[in-house]
Amino acid sequence: MARAIWSGSVSFGLVSIPVELYSATEDHTVHFNQFQRGTSDRIRYKRVNERTGREVPYDKIVKGHEVDNGEYVIVEPEELDDIAPGRSRTLDIEAFVDLDEIDPVFFQKTYWLGPAKPEFSRPYLLLAQAMKKTNRAGIAMFVMRGKQYLTALKEDNGILAVHTLFFADEIRKPEDVLDVTPEGRAPRGKELDMAVSLVESMADDWRPKDYRDTYTERVNKLIKDKQKGREIVVEAEPPEATGVVDLMEALQRSVEASKKKRSGTKKKAG
């Protein structure tokens, strides 16, 4: 069984529910160690004093924030602990908002929230069902591992899900980060009709189980092939950019190909 990574209580109005927090996702990334090429020597990192060249133990390290060119303010770990907000371990719902109003760009990571004990199931389910019926999410702040989080609680098949959110000042505007922004008049006419036709011809239901991390699979295969001395198969190059002149033809051919693919899929299913 997974272990809770945080425990406390959800509070809304005068109701308080003891709960435990669990990660809803897991990382399948293949991790590598570093070696010097041509040897079996591992590359390791050390915490070294840049002036003396000597390694420094953890208990001798403090944090420093640069406030001016070359000038730092030194902060002790205990000082950060002393000012940590919300040290009461409470996930206090401040408001319930329409779930559809939260832009997906704000969502960061998802956790499952469960009742701490079976006897707390009734108020837990009551909160979950109330949010489901109203299509609302509970907005709350809480502290975990020395950091304050903005969160949205929502109902998910009878379970409470906690989504950590980015703060508003952490969201970048597209115009502030894109080197090239789309310009010119909005597309219309036959090209737009054909693009809409292509989108509709490729419309499907969202089935997350149909998708998998093929790159990680290839990395694992690469490792096994190298271990057994097999030849490495190189992946195909990505397609070239579609020229503006060829756009209409590319759209037409794409629609036809999509329709043929769907027709073939239906015949196999039948």
TrEMBL record:
InterPro entries: DNA_bd_Ku70/Ku80 (IPR006164), Prok_Ku (IPR009187), SPOC-like_C_dom_sf (IPR016194). Keywords: DNA damage, DNA recombination, DNA repair, DNA-binding. GO terms for biological process: DNA recombination; double-strand break repair via nonhomologous end joining. GO terms for molecular function: double-stranded DNA binding. Belongs to the prokaryotic Ku family. SMART domains: Ku78. Pfam families: Ku. HAMAP family: Prokaryotic_Ku. Residues 53-182 form the Ku domain. This is Non-homologous end joining protein Ku. The keyword DNA-binding applies. With LigD forms a non-homologous end joining (NHEJ) DNA repair enzyme, which repairs dsDNA breaks with reduced fidelity. Binds linear dsDNA with 5'- and 3'- overhangs but not closed circular dsDNA nor ssDNA. Recruits and stimulates the ligase activity of LigD. Homodimer. Interacts with LigD. It comes from Lentzea atacamensis.
